Amino acid sequence: MDGILTGLNTAQRTAVTSEASVLQVLAPPGSGKTKTLTARVAYFIAHRQLKPWNIIVCTFTVKAAREMQERIRGFVGDEVAKKLKIGTFHGIALRYLRQYGKHVGLGDNFGVADTTDSKDIVKRIIVQTQSELDPAAARNRISAQKSKGVSAEQFASIVSKNVEQRDFSQVFSLYQAQLKACNLLDYDDLLLVCVELLRSHPECVANVEALLVDEFQDTNGVQYELMNLLAQRRNVITIVGDPDQSIYGWRSAEIKNLGRMKEQWSDTLTVNLEENYRSSGAILHAAQKIIEQDESRPPKKLQATHGIGQRPVLRKLPQARHEADWLTSEVKRMRALTGNMLELSDFAVLLRSAALSRPIETSLGAAGMPYRMIGGMKFYDRVEVKMLLDYLRVIDQPSHNEALARVINVPSRKVGDKTVEGLQREASNKGLSLWTLILGFAQGRTKVTTNLNAPAQRGIEQFVNVVLTLQKKLAAEPSGLYELFAQLQKMIGLQDYLKTKYPDDHETRWSNVEELMALAIDAQVQASTELDREQEAHAPAYGEEAVEESALTAFLANAALAASIDEKAVADGEKVHQVTISTIHAAKGLEWPVVFIPACYEGSIPHSRAEDNDEERRLLYVGMTRAQAMLYLSCPGKSTRQEDTTMSSFLEQPGVSSFFEEHGPSISHAEVQSLAVTLRRKCPDVAATATTTAALDLQEDNYWPLTGEMPFTEAPWQEGAHQNPAVPVFGNARSASWAN
Ligand code: ATP
Ligand code: MG
């Protein structure tokens, strides 16, 4: 127990041990909210005798969930930590739906439609109905409605006579019908259907003893509802969050959920934490100076517990490549100056959008510095990875029309786009899935009206043969994911296909395939060892046995959920000797000794397509407050598209520049020391005893008057950031690190 409370400050201890059933911890970045939350989980187990499998912990990303589990493991040991129900809202919903989904009419083997699937479905409906809507916008709009809890029927019932709205309503309804026909749930459905389940069958959560939610400021309406329902039996709820870090408004996150909670439970206890344990005073000052530009924000107190440290750097450079080279040389210089005490993993480059990474990748790559990417350039988004997953989806669930249409002609089987479209239309007119139609055709049972020439006919037969063969193999050996992969890539001649299609970087692409096969092995091992036997033993008496899902179904569901984070990179171990490149969104909750935020220009941050300027400012604030000892902001004179830029308006406000160095530190003895302090801080034992220098009350200086997870951490305009197939996206990072 004492381990649990050791090193916590008074307010943190209060929060950890509080008897209040509903507890809010609201506090600025780096004040130990996540630390407090994990300690409270451990405290519940050790002192209140709560069963770990009855505790639900929600975080925003898969990576955050892992880190949290890691921290809790430190208190209660591996065995106990493993039994917690810990994950993203989507992951937790998926888990309940797999187990109890049949109560709300879900088929056993439902699949998860990822963002690309949803987009493809919407696109097809728009073509079929000759709608004028923009597919991407329509899809985002559907998602926004669903995040607010508005169903297609509800929308249809309130829709006005406005033609555009009626058009959208029709697309929305057809989209839902299509998902249903394919036995698919999209990300929004995972939450919505789980809400429906828990509302109608509260028995499913009868033994939940406590619910804890990190990054609460970013929950949306449906997640809030889900949270209530998960905790409905005992209402023991702990949430931690920071309104200043609310950066998911574009995904319908609702900051007013904080107030809602207080209204709902008048006895909610709120604990504020006011000391920052992460950043140097100078970094905090600069971050405050940015966030306080939002005048609607209430004043807050925040004290730095570390020394003032080095002033952050704000640097202008001619072009993006100069910026990248400068950044790379700073990494080198800082390492040299600290006698390589700083490792590459102590540096992070945080980007407003994934598309900005290319010059940085090039520069780090040229300097031979390994790097890894999280958020944005997703492993699961790479063309070859997507294609293999699509094949697996078809094998797992042949009614998955979208996946089937994407791969039927990859590698080419002479079945052109027009033919595929024709077949899709025909199948849909006949009320069949595309698979049923072509299977019947290949087996000579069904005639098709779509015009098929001889090569196309043969192509379809070949494709059907691949799928049938692999389905048989899977049936014979349900856990043999790796073997399934191996046979699949052989049957479709994947290696040759990649060589011909991508002569310049087929090796990189092949290494992605190997990576995916490695993940399949991992999944296989996990499936066989981790069946949560203990939890099942303590599962509610209610309900039938948990549905046994096949290794492949589980693998695909996880792949869909992992969309925002490069799981493998994270799973590779605690000490990854690589510079991190991440979007700011995906860096939420994390920290590094040295942080770079390049491309701070108008149009990038604030983003030209962002609707909420305050949210953009908070995003910059989140980025800046990831830094412990050194923070570098920079702005190139030209964008990567060679357009002239101006410095971000957030950094051009009066008085801001005095918080920054212009030319970068001519590194001083003090700086080296502050870095050393940071490094020591990384070791918790030392941290607990480290003398805090010159605690700094920001209030005094008038700094404060003011403001605010499936895995899915990107703004819509970041999607498709790496569509240019000629540019290896992730490959550099991997080959570089392997070379090392
Ligand atoms: P964010 O808002 O960015 O998610 P947070 O409030 O969750 O931040 P944590 O990540 O929990 O903050 O903590 C920030 C850092 O401060 C961590 O390195 C943590 O170990 C350290 N820390 C927190 N509380 C204390 C404490 N009482 N003593 C020493 N270090 C602490
Ligand atoms: Mg946190």
Automatic annotation (TrEMBL):
Residues 281-589 form the UvrD-like helicase C-terminal domain. It catalyses: ATP + H2O = ADP + phosphate + H(+); Couples ATP hydrolysis with the unwinding of duplex DNA by translocating in the 3'-5' direction. It is an enzyme of class 5 (isomerase). Residues 6-280 form the UvrD-like helicase ATP-binding domain. One of its GO terms (molecular function) is ATP binding. Transmembrane segments: none annotated. One of its GO terms (cellular component) is nucleus. Its EC number is 5.6.2.4. Keywords: ATP-binding, DNA-binding, Helicase, Hydrolase, Isomerase, Nucleotide-binding. ATP binds at residues 27-34. GO terms for biological process: recombinational repair. Belongs to the helicase family. UvrD subfamily. This is DNA 3'-5' helicase. It comes from Cryoendolithus antarcticus. The chain holds residues 1 to 740 of 963 of the full protein.
